[in-house]
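dumping the sequnces here before i forget
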Amino acid sequence: MIRIQAEDFDVGAEMAAMNGDGDVGALASFVGLVRGGKGDEKIGAMTLEHYPGMTEKKLAQIEAEARTRWPLEDCLIIHRFGRLEPGERIVMVITASSHRQAALEACAFLIDWLKTSAPFWKLEERSGGEEWVEARASDDQAAEKWAANK
Amino acid sequence: MKLLYFAWLKQKIGIAEEDITLPDDVATLGALVTWLKSRGPGYEEALGDLAVVRFAVNQDFAGLDHPLSDSDEVALFPPVTGG
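..and the predicted 3d for all of it:
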C-alpha cells in the first residue's frame, strides 16, 4: 500500500496494522527522519516537493517490483511532503513476510529505490539561505546494486 | 501539451506549469528542450546543463529521444531525492 501525505504517522500503529492473512512471521521497517546536521551543515527545516500523480505511480511500481522479487504478505510505503523540521519523520517502509530474510531484503530494496526513482525534491533552509539537496551518486549505486542482483 | 516544472527548474523558469501547442517540427523530447530554450532567458538558464535535468513523459521517466505528441504530459525536473 502507498500513502503520500503531508501529515505525520504513528510508527507503532502502522506496524501493528500489518497483519497479512495470518502467515506473517517477520516485519522489517525503515523510518527516515529530517537530519538536523551539525555546524555549517545545520538546517532549520526542509520542504519536500513532489509530482502528484507520478509519485503514486512510481511508488506503486516499486512496490509491485518488490512483491515479484520476495514473498511479501504485506507492504506499506508512507512518504510525506511539505515543510518538515529536524527530527520529523519523512518516510516509512514496512514489509511483512513469513521469514526475516525476505522482509529485510525487500525493505532495503524499497528504500534504495525510493531515493532514485520517487519524484521528490528537498529544499533545505540554512543560515545562508535556501538550498536544493542534490542527488548523490552513492544513492544511484545503491539502487543499481539491486538491478544487478535481479 | 501540458508542461510541468519542479524544484529549481520551476524557480528559474518562473512557473510551475503551462499549456503549449506542440510545434509541428518538434517530434522528440530533445527537440522540445531546444525549442523551450529559445523562449527566454529563464528557460535557457534552467536548461543550460542537461546533465542535471531529468524528464518524464506521461509520468514515466524518459530520455531525450522519446517521441512526443500534443496530448502528452511532459515534466522537467532535477534528479530526484526521495526517501
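The interface with chain A takes residues 4, 6-8, 56, 59-61, 75, 77-83 of chain B (CB under 8 Å).
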